[in-house]
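Running this now, will post back.
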Amino acid sequence: MRSSILFFVVVSAFVVSFAALLIFGFEGGFGGRGPGAAMGVPRSFWLILFVVPLVVAISVLGYVLVFPELGGEKPVEKPSSMPAVEKGESALDAVLRVLNDDEKKVIETLVAEGGTMLQKDIRWKTGLSRVKTHRILFRLAKRGVVSAEKYYNTNKITLADWLMKKEALA
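Update: finished.
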């Protein structure tokens, strides 16, 4: 759909530009006053009518060359929320494989405490700053590894069920 619209815009712009170039050329071009000026249409109008569609056409072609995915419809692949688990590996091990050091420290602390802790306790046990702990937990919650619920003046952090269930089975 988009590619047909872009094609139409480019062709239309080239046609208008070519027509304006022909009229501009017959009207005397850059020198002298042509018969079009006597009709009330200045030559500069035809020049502008030539240049603007040409710039639009070139811009659209450049856009299509820079972003070629507009040419064809590609199937959208939905990324998996859980990392691939290799044979004999628990889901926890698979998650720990893809996390950075600070995130691993937080997850390991949560696992050691049974899967649920207060955010302020995670901060003290890991030795991370308050802001860093918050940012790490926010990233983990966004990925679905932990969930947070408000608990007085802090948050109650819980390890995801799918992670705890797989860990219990392994």
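The chain is about 60% helix and 10% strand. More later if anyone needs it.
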